[in-house]
TrEMBL record:
The keyword Ion transport does not apply. The keyword Metal-binding applies. It is an enzyme of class 5 (isomerase). GO terms for cellular component: cytosol. It catalyses: alpha-D-glucose 1,6-bisphosphate + L-seryl-[protein] = O-phospho-L-seryl-[protein] + alpha-D-glucose 6-phosphate; O-phospho-L-seryl-[protein] + alpha-D-glucose 1-phosphate = alpha-D-glucose 1,6-bisphosphate + L-seryl-[protein]; alpha-D-glucose 1-phosphate = alpha-D-glucose 6-phosphate. This is phosphoglucomutase (alpha-D-glucose-1,6-bisphosphate-dependent).
Amino acid sequence: ADRAPPGTDHRHYSQVGVKMVSFEVIEQQTKPFDGQKPGTSGLRKKVKVFQQEHYLANFVQSSFNALPADRVKGSTIVVSGDGRYYSKDAIQIIIRIAAANGVAQVWVGQDGLLSTPAVSGIIRDRVGSKGEKAYGGFILTASHNAGGPDEDFGIKYNTENGGPALEALTDQIYENTKTITTYLIAEGIPDIDIHKIATSSFSGPSGPFSVEVFDATEDYVKMMKQIFDFEAISRLLARPDFTFCYDALHGVAGVYAKRIFLQELGAQESSLLNCTPKEDFGGGHPDPNLTYAKQLVKTMGLGSPVPEEIPEFGAAADGDADRNMILGKKFFVTPSDSVAIIAANAVGAIPYFRNGLKGVARSMPTSAALDVVAKGLGLRQFEVPTGWKFFGNLMDAGMCSICGEESFGTGSDHIREKDGIWAVLAWLSILAYRNRDVAADDKLVTVEDIVTLHWGIYGRHYYTRYDYENVDAGAAKNLMSHLVKLQSNLTAVNKIIKETRPEVSGVKSGDEFEYKDPVDGSVSSHQGIRFLFKDGSRLVFRLSGTGSVGATIRLYIEQYQSDKSKTGADASETLAPLVDVALVLSKMEEFTGRSAPTVIT
Ligand code: G6P
Ligand code: ZN
């Protein structure tokens, strides 16, 4: 390794006369750890696992080794995350490893905080003082998983387009983790004060190195202002009959919510719930859904007791602020409806889409509500496997403007991640637009009105998801193989349906979903079983790719109703016959021993 000879004067002076501390590069011996295989959402493990000596360092060095050395040398890398426990230690370690690997500059959000969408935007758009741009970034998050000393930590690498590393790169990182014997680390760089907005400069064997700590919201706010009409949203928020509630679940979204909703848009401070980021998310699960966003759900009148005053609009985010949940007064907007409604209203309500949409996309298990909009508006539409990376390819090729998933992810081609705050601003824009001519003393057009009007035009996709968590992995596999076989025999399928629930329409086709990427031609197979019914209903079965214990079977149930007089029924009642059919077709109880799902969303 490059060690400076003893007695070397470690102080160097830059041309402008700033004293620079110099550092040495140490080659540290290490041994591989098992199981450092990152998915597209990165490497997620318990904090205790990450705290083992060399564990994080091995992974970071393996990532640098997987990148072309000539691009790493002299590059700028972003390092920040959702602020969960262990982030602060991780940032200091990554800074030293980056410096030792010849990175010229590390960009850190103040307090080590940057939302996942903000990092994506910064990689794509931020320009440094010397005109430089970021080459990639390490995002420190385990998304919606709980945080704290006994909970989860995570690290994920995003590449130059602002999106998560693709499989070829994550596979290479994993290969490197299996054979790593040493990593490079800088000695002589003190802990950086990541609370202070400042640049710290150093001098290393391969040249200058600096760490710039900057305001976490600045770049993101600038981007949002280019997309949305902030004045129109401010006018909506100023209406006495419009009340608003945002729950950041103690994740990083709180930082952006304070800046955007309070400072920029003039919302009341009382509109914000849990907007101070905490290392353990206040002990909760930072997942914006009806189960985990308890306080918001209650505030919006969807729990009990029902409060006397209920805000008109409610929303929540997950830990790293890429997911979102949208609520109206006593009203839940399904993520599948949300993306369809945003797409249907985007051109009028959101300046960024003024010139039209390039196309729209949804993941396969997401309801077909978006398809009906695409058809109605004559837009190109794509159905991709679960996982945001598939949208990224379409967006890079200019084929898709808006996309979404049933798993509470919504976004657009302004970045290459889903974007929780963006989704809220999109909804506020739609509300502002729909109320632009509504006088202050006239009845406000509400979230429920917008959704109901949408169903009136496009019909409604009744939708629910049943999750069977922590099922024996073998049992889950057997259930899926049974369905693979069954799906090819429609006569048998339709016989079972007739015997179970004769009122349910027949199945017109079944398949195991396979996707051929129209951009790079790559094929993704075994992406879940689909049954498509004659009346437009769908049943989808797939295994979760994110579960941590055993296997999680997800069952997605969807029924299309185009008759406007029938779009206001109760979803679970409407879907009950289809649910029965799904359980019989899959032999759910027989295979898993479960008579009920663990979670219904
Ligand atoms: C992550 C990904 C999403 C995906 C979700 C569901 O959040 O970023 O793109 O929809 O996981 O994953 P699962 O495989 O558990 O259904
Ligand atoms: Zn997330």
